[in-house]
């Protein structure tokens, strides 16, 4: 393989580039990114960057030495417009074409927006430019902020806005925020963090319309209420950036479909990070974006799937001074058990909380609020179990496959 | 020289956090060695004394950067800078850390 193009110059793209070099690829490495910035870390955007505790230098994912070691051609500020497998080319929006024999798709996801025009004062939070714009508004004196969506980014943004002294209301259409991720019991616990932290939480009602023409003045809810607002943050999730792959023959269904080694149906094309649906799951977590590139690159260089990406979901979130960590695969119907700490008026007590989800006597997932040490132990144990089940499954598969093979050689 | 705790109160495989500024983490490895490093991960904001101790390495509880307790050097990403290491002694059964001066600033 002489040229590899990484499309997407952020977390998973950078990790893929590093893996390419670490795994011995010494050909031409091209990294295409539509943002003008060198790779930076997104998680702090809604946390320490918004509150001003971390400045832009702290977001950088590379420095000159690290970037030098990659020996890559960076094409920044230019979007990939198409992947043409027959011509073995990535076609850029500015008309240039990069011919290559390997492609890593790492185009991530984009913040979902409300339909219709967005008046001034309405923000999303996905990119550094988004965060700069929001921060500029928030440092202009006390404001009334409405956060639409109670997911992790919504919750972190609300928490940061409270820390900056703003009046904050979070609106969540579902009966509870984070319901699909955490289930009712644990979602209730996390929802209580808003109340304890000093933000209002309105659930079970959607957003009807934004008020204001030039600048936003309020948010009309579907139940008829109107919330006054000078700043609105729309945190209603992210959609994978796959539009540029239309016509590439790749299967796209809420992400780029991959096997569990991040390989697509096209030889020499792998996908990693938020854009990739790996073995049926699209994880939008920092840790998967940094772990998947190892297997993806090994498979790209091998030309077939020899490695499987690790898959135990893990994410963390910082809200209202608490660190929330979650790992595992919770299913509806799992029993929830609090194993350490406890609740104080519905919210995690001052010394945190460790809760596990269980099914048939086995732990499926673990949630921690300010209990990193036991959480880490349980997360590792879950990962170990996961690897074991995975190995058994594969060995079972291999055994099943080897039967006809042996017969054939008799 | 700062007293941490009695040696018998820090069994092998355990760690303790010392509330100095900046805080320090003391580890008692499974092999019986004692090490002290700065507690705050150089990547972002996590306490290494809450991390996972394996041999002479500690893994950060937030994003799994791993540090060598003997040198303070990270052995994998996302951390890229070393944590400072401090000397540890046991006097009369009590663990003490000897803080190194902070670089650059006069200590
Ligand atoms: C505010 C915020 C806070 C977060 N906090 C946490 C957290 O606490 N914990 C956690 O686990 N995760 C968190 N995440 C999620 C984590 O940041 C993502 O999982 C991670 O960034 C995914 O990396 P990626 O490289 O796959 O995608 P992205 O980071 O989305 O990067 C994709 C890049 O590709 C570019 N691109 C897209 N299309 C094209 C194209 N056609 N041509 C060229 N370039 C293109 C994009 O502009 C972008 O720069 C957070 C995310 C955000 C936005
Ligand atoms: S804070 Fe330690 S690895 Fe990120």
From TrEMBL, chain A:
Reductase C-terminal domain ranges (all copies): 314-387
Pfam families referenced in this protein's UniProt entry, alphabetically: Pyr_redox_2, Reductase_C
Keyword ATP-binding among record annotations: no
One MF term in the entry's GO annotations: oxidoreductase activity, acting on NAD(P)H
Taxonomic superkingdom: Bacteria
GO cellular component: cytoplasm
Cofactor field: FAD
Key word Cytoplasm present: no
InterPro entries from the UniProt entry: FAD-oxidoreductase/Apoptosis (IPR050446), FAD/NAD-bd_sf (IPR036188), FAD/NAD-binding_dom (IPR023753), FAD/NAD-linked_Rdtase_dimer_sf (IPR016156), Reductase_C (IPR028202)
Bias type Basic and acidic residues, positions: 380-396
Residues covered by the FAD/NAD(P)-binding domain: 3-292
Span list, region Disordered: 380-410
Keywords: FAD, Flavoprotein, Oxidoreductase
Protein name (database record): FAD-dependent oxidoreductase
UniProtKB/TrEMBL annotation, chain B:
InterPro entries the UniProt entry points to: Rieske_2Fe-2S, Rieske_2Fe-2S_sf
PROSITE patterns linked to this entry: RIESKE
Source lineage: Bacteria, Bacillati, Actinomycetota, Actinomycetes, Kitasatosporales
GO molecular function terms noted in the UniProt entry: 2 iron, 2 sulfur cluster binding; dioxygenase activity; metal ion binding; monooxygenase activity; oxidoreductase activity, acting on paired donors, with incorporation or reduction of molecular oxygen
Keywords carried by this UniProt record: 2Fe-2S, Dioxygenase, Iron, Iron-sulfur, Metal-binding, Oxidoreductase
TM segment ranges: none
Full protein name: Bifunctional 3-phenylpropionate/cinnamic acid dioxygenase ferredoxin subunit
The organism of origin for this protein: Streptomyces griseoviridis
Record-annotated Rieske domain positions: 2-97
């Amino acid at each position: 393989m002489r040229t590899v193009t990484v499309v997407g110059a952020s977390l998973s793209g950078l990790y893929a580039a590093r893996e390419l070099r670490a795994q011995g690829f010494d050909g031409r490495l091209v990294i295409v990114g539509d943002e003008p910035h060198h790779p930076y870390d997104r998680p702090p955007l809604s946390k320490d960057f918004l509150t001003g505790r971390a400045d832009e230098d702290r977001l950088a994912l590379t420095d000159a030495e690290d970037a030098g070691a990659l020996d890559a051609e960076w094409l920044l500020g230019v979007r990939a417009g198409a992947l043409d497998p027959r011509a073995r080319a990535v076609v850029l929006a500015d008309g240039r074409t990069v011919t290559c024999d390997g492609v890593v798709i790492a185009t991530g996801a984009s913040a979902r927006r409300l339909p219709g025009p967005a008046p001034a004062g309405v923000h999303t939070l996905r990119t550094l430019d988004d965060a700069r714009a929001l921060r500029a508004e928030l440092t202009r004196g006390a404001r009334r902020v409405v956060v639409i969506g109670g997911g992790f980014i919504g919750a972190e943004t609300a928490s940061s806005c409270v820390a900056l002294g703003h009046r904050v209301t979070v609106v969540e259409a579902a009966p509870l925020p984070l319901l699909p991720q955490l289930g009712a019991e644990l979602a209730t616990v996390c929802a209580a963090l808003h109340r304890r932290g000093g933000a209002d939480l309105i659930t079970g009602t959607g957003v009807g319309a934004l008020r204001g023409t030039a600048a936003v003045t309020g948010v009309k809810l579907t139940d008829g209420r109107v919330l006054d607002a000078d700043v609105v943050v729309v945190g209603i999730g992210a959609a994978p950036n796959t539009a540029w792959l239309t016509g590439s023959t790749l299967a796209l269904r809420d992400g780029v479909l991959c096997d569990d080694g991040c390989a697509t149906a096209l030889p020499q094309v792998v996908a990693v990070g938020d854009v990739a649906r790996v073995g049926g799951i699209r994880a939008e977590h920092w840790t998967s974006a940094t772990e998947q590139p190892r297997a993806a690159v090994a498979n790209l260089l091998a030309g077939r799937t020899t490695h499987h990406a690790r898959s135990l979901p893990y994410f963390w979130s910082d809200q209202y001074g608490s660190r929330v960590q979650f790992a595992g695969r919770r299913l509806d119907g799992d029993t929830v058990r609090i194993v350490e700490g406890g609740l104080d008026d519905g919210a995690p007590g001052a010394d945190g909380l460790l809760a596990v989800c269980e099914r048939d006597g086995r732990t499926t997932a673990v949630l921690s609020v300010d209990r990193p040490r036991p959480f880490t132990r349980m997360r590792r144990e879950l990962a170990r179990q996961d690897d074991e089940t995975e190995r058994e499954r594969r060995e079972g598969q291999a055994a099943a496959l080897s039967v006809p093979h042996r017969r054939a050689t008799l | 020289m700062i007293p941490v705790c009695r040696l018998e109160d820090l069994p092998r495989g355990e760690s303790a956090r010392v509330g100095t500024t900046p805080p320090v983490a003391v580890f008692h490895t499974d092999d019986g060695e004692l090490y002290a490093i700065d507690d705050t991960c150089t990547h972002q904001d996590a306490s290494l004394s809450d991390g996972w101790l394996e041999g002479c390495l500690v893994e950060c509880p937030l994003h799994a950067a791993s540090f060598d307790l003997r040198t303070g050097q990270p052995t994998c990403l996302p951390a890229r800078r070393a944590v400072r290491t401090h000397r540890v002694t046991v006097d009369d059964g009590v663990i003490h850390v000897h803080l190194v001066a902070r670089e650059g600033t006069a200590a």
